[in-house]
Amino acid sequence: MSEGTLYDKVWDRHKVTTLPTGQDQLFVGLHLIHEVTSPQAFGMLRERDLEVAYPKLTHATVDHIVPTADQSRPYEEDAAEEMMSELEENVREAGIDFSDPTTGDQGIVHVIGPEQGLTQPGKTIVCGDSHTSTHGAFGALAFGIGTSQIRDVLATGTVAMEKQKVRKIQVDGELGEGVEAKDIILEIIRRLGTEGGVGYVYEYAGEAIENLNMEGRMSICNMSIEGGARAGYVNPDETTYEWLEETDYFQENPEKFDELKPYWESIASDEDAEYDDVVHIDASELEPVVTWGTTPGQGVGVTEPIPAPEDLPEEKQDTARRAQEHMRVEPGETMEGYNIDVAFLGSCTNARLPDLRRAAEIVEGRQVDDDVRAMVVPGSQRVQAAAEEEGLKDTFEEAGFEWRNAGCSMCLGMNEDQLEGDEASASSSNRNFVGRQGSKEGRTVLMNPQMVAAAAVTGEVTDVRDLQEVTVA
Amino acid sequence: MSGSDEVEIPEVDYVSGSGIPIRGNDIDTDQIIPARFMKVVTFDGLGEFAFFDLRFDDDDTPKDHPMNEDRFQDSSVMVVNANFGCGSSREHAPQALMRWGIDAIIGESFAEIFAGNCLALGIPTVTADSETIEELQDWVDANPDGEIEIDVEAEEVTYGDTTIDVTVDEAQRKALVDGVWDTTALMKSNADAVREKAKELPYVDDEAIPEPK
């Protein structure tokens, strides 16, 4: 068993008791809720005549169904309007703060928590959304839960969990041009598999992780779940503290910053911490990674050949065959040159300001390919406003991108932003499952945001490093 | 106040029924319940949309899928392969399977959040190695009306003349067998200890901690 890791320490600080099942009852420091997975939980509370126990540690936003074009109420789609109304009523009754679109603070739940300083090191954070692992970037213990567990958290301020093992993923070396955090996590999932992390929490460490800004660390922790790990984290450091100091919470309560810093420092993994497993990755060997299949683990370097199913471990062969049929790719070919119909820059993985900046640099002075529908969906209203302020919106629009309002959008196709028919999408999101982007024939190629920008302008999967060389020349 | 005490939580130490094989590794929850069916504020009626895109064409014509076959319509034990239920945390997925008629799932392995969601509904997710699972899937195919018995406490599955050892996660087994898988009332009874814990945490403001009731 692990010892002295951030996970062990945060777990111990939040453990209320051990339940008769052997699970621990953990105190929840921050409960984030949204419109899709919470209404049924509020319904269960009403059925049992229970109240929300810790409304001030709960925060709501709307992201999954929110339209990203016309946001005037009532929403055009009845189902979306009903879900929004239900959430509004639930948070009003319980006295829960709600970053709704009229506040200017709305956005994807995993973008707004960090922005507002709700996400802090050493907190336990849960949300009815598997990408809650994102918040681990700040040294929080953050994981997704189901709706019955949301009911538990609403009613008791706690959640029942079994303690897991800790795998340290040591990423050394420096990232090359055009290669970023997204490529590190796609590589990790490719190597360890989509279920390699089941039963583990991932600690991301090493020079390459320490050199990332908070947004990059969030991209990595975000996709922990795609590797089967329910939570992933990075130990807090000066980069973390600098971000926190600028957030609303610490701007409004500056004394809290000094008060809490010793706690943050105390929960970081010890030098001599013990791990259940350690994996090494050399960041300097990576190139931009793209997916060729229908699971996030089916990735390949952009210039590398797509593997033949029979060369993969036996248990992966069937899935690979079906995936290659769906994607219409051939073993031995590269993904470079794969035709693209849609370019989607968005999602809780890669729709923060630095993500949009890097993509805009590629787009600048170029035009979206005639056959490509390209869109930018900022992760939050604040990202959107900041990007507009520094001219990124103009850059994207001049190149032919649509500039939309904040939400989950085409990452999961619950609003009007969807793939049609068998369209192929170059996407900065996190899942390439069949049907994920709204069309069951749709094809998703996951990649980093610069690579999405490159695909948008060329109409095919493109090694962004080639475009960068042209820029330099 | 504590209406939660009235909730009856049955013990789930034994489940039986005929099986239905759903083959393939890495079946994600987007497959089990596509996102467009989640635009609802209750779980009612989700059963008919379970595996919808694998079961129906664009014009709603049924496709070749076990859940569309007459012989599996009364099945209640799903037999699946590895990493079943990966991806999105949506409880809509096990809710849809449960409302279709599934009481237990036997598989090679399950994604963690999915297994936790199943437990919260009293649905056992028991595991065995890939060879054992494939044999069971073949048997179910040949014996669609055949009874599968899952002894959760003894960690055994019996079908035909065969009894196999299966694994049930320790906490899941205790929770199901002792009937404590619905944790709300259990955890609520520790409200005082929870408040004390909150007071110990440096980041929790006093005003966020409710008065004892």
Automatic annotation (TrEMBL), chain A:
Binds 1 [4Fe-4S] cluster per subunit. GO terms for biological process: L-leucine biosynthetic process. [4Fe-4S] cluster binds at C348, C408, C411. Gene3D superfamilies: Aconitase, domain 3. It catalyses: (2R,3S)-3-isopropylmalate = (2S)-2-isopropylmalate. Pfam families: Aconitase. Pathway: Amino-acid biosynthesis; L-leucine biosynthesis; L-leucine from 3-methyl-2-oxobutanoate: step 2/4. The keyword Isomerase applies. Residues 8-459 form the Aconitase/3-isopropylmalate dehydratase large subunit alpha/beta/alpha domain. Its EC number is 4.2.1.33. Keywords: 4Fe-4S, Amino-acid biosynthesis, Branched-chain amino acid biosynthesis, Iron, Iron-sulfur, Isomerase, Leucine biosynthesis, Lyase, Metal-binding. Its cofactor is [4Fe-4S] cluster. GO terms for molecular function: 3-isopropylmalate dehydratase activity; 4 iron, 4 sulfur cluster binding; isomerase activity; metal ion binding. InterPro entries: 3-IsopropMal_deHydase_lsu, Acnase/IPM_dHydase_lsu_aba_1/3, Acoase/IPM_deHydtase_lsu_aba, Aconitase_4Fe-4S_BS, Aconitase_4Fe-4S_dom, IPM_dehydratase_rel_enz, IPMI_cat. Residues 291-315, 419-439 are annotated as: Disordered. The keyword Cytoplasm does not apply. Transmembrane segments: none annotated. Catalyzes the isomerization between 2-isopropylmalate and 3-isopropylmalate, via the formation of 2-isopropylmaleate. Heterodimer of LeuC and LeuD. Belongs to the aconitase/IPM isomerase family. LeuC type 1 subfamily. This is 3-isopropylmalate dehydratase large subunit. It comes from Natrinema limicola JCM 13563.
UniProtKB/TrEMBL annotation, chain B:
Its EC number is 4.2.1.33. GO terms for molecular function: 3-isopropylmalate dehydratase activity. One of its GO terms (biological process) is L-leucine biosynthetic process. It catalyses: (2R,3S)-3-isopropylmalate = (2S)-2-isopropylmalate. InterPro entries: 3-IsopropMal_deHydase_ssu, Aconitase/3IPM_dehydase_swvl, AconitaseA/IPMdHydase_ssu_swvl, IPMI_Swivel, LeuD. Catalyzes the isomerization between 2-isopropylmalate and 3-isopropylmalate, via the formation of 2-isopropylmaleate. Residues 24-127 form the Aconitase A/isopropylmalate dehydratase small subunit swivel domain. This is 3-isopropylmalate dehydratase. Belongs to the LeuD family. LeuD type 2 subfamily. Belongs to the LeuD family. LeuD type 1 subfamily. CDD domains: IPMI_Swivel. The keyword Amino-acid biosynthesis applies. GO terms for cellular component: 3-isopropylmalate dehydratase complex. Keywords: Amino-acid biosynthesis, Branched-chain amino acid biosynthesis, Leucine biosynthesis, Lyase. Pathway: Amino-acid biosynthesis; L-leucine biosynthesis; L-leucine from 3-methyl-2-oxobutanoate: step 2/4. Heterodimer of LeuC and LeuD. It is an enzyme of class 4 (lyase). SUPFAM superfamilies: LeuD/IlvD-like. It comes from the Archaea.
